[in-house]
């Protein structure tokens, strides 16, 4: 794949498994949206792209303070809906003056964050996960099929203890686990994983990001099973505050293009890193199941794997299977969003999946997407694109995601989604 290391002596295309034809078709360029809010009166709900909505919520989230309860983008109406706690007339007026729709809700983001801390202390049972859903203004708690009997009662009691309207619990048919087995992208020992995004380290060396549980399991990675190692893991986090690893290529002159091969001769140039947003349409490329697409369904998710608890993840409905671990999660406009961590189900029955945010991983290891120069569109600081993901992004209740150029290409394909949490 072109997002893998390409030695100067040859170009290597790795087998990507079954490529999602429908997902590839969605990646084709689309016509630009009309100018946001054209011809609308100030103070009335205005039409806007997902990227414009993201920028607006960054400002409103700070302005509203404790009255802010998250927000979501209504793609059908092309409007931003902002959650306001209680009946705060001043906050409502601020929201409406900005051109968004004010929606009265029960829970502030700070209250939901406190509730998630309570869940960490009382419901950290293997096989559970939780994340904020700004569309319902609640925490969605998911328990997989292994959570039964006393373990189910523990989680259910913890959710009930939060009070009415704070959290809800649902059952998953699958089993939460890291997707480390199978696949054919990068090999080490008896493990197989997928490469995520090529990066440049602080000292200028080429490297790549992959899943932390892959980096913890194996230090040296090869392009073929039992092949000569091409990269060495420098840092790896799993479990704990993430699931990411940085590996550097053993050849310091290795070419590491900032692109993802999505099959059928198509590539997507990765221009920058960006945070996720609930409702954002995303694409995942993995060595087992190829190209798949779906939506972000939760932010700042906590997953209790059998190996330990991981926090700060992105939750989606994009399917994945063993061997897809570490693979790239990205948007049509070329924003690197996440690295495949794990989940439940498969690409036949579906399920929930979780991803390590790329921006967090880049900050932790001090790297940047691609070479970081103008040629490949890398961000100069190794973090998120400044237009759409400034001020902390969605992981701390701000805004992120969307199409970075504001033309509605990514946002136009989104269903109703949300920001914050």
Total DSSP E strands:
25
Shape: globular
How much helicity do the residues have?
10-25%
**Rg value:** 21 Å
How do the strands of the widest beta sheet line up side by side? 18-19-20-23-22-21
Poorly predicted residue ranges? 1-19, 29-35, 180-184, 372-421
Give the overall average pLDDT. Answer: 78
> Which strand-content bin applies to the residues?
25-35%
Largest sheet properties? 6 strands, antiparallel, barrel
What structural category characterises the helix and strand content?
Answer: alpha+beta
> How widely separated are the two ends?
34 Å
Number of helical stretches of at least 4 residues? 7
Q: Can you offer a commentary on this structure?
A:
- The structure is a single chain.
- With 421 residues, this protein is of the alpha+beta class.
- The protein has helices at 21-26, 50-64, 89-97, 109-122, 149-161, 212-217, 358-365; strands spanning 68-74, 79-85, 101-105, 128-133, 138-143, 167-171, 177-178, 186-188, 191-193, 197-200, 206-210, 220-222, 229-237, 244-249, 259-263, 266-269, 272-273, 281-286, 290-305, 308-316, 328-330, 335-343, 353-357, 368-369, 417-419.
- The strands form 5 sheets. Strands 18-19-20-23-22-21 form a 6-stranded antiparallel β-barrel.
- Helix 3 (89-97) links the parallel strand 2 and strand 3.
- The protein starts with 20 loop residues before the first helix and ends with a strand.
- The model is unreliable at 1-19, 29-35, 180-184 and 372-421 (pLDDT under 50).
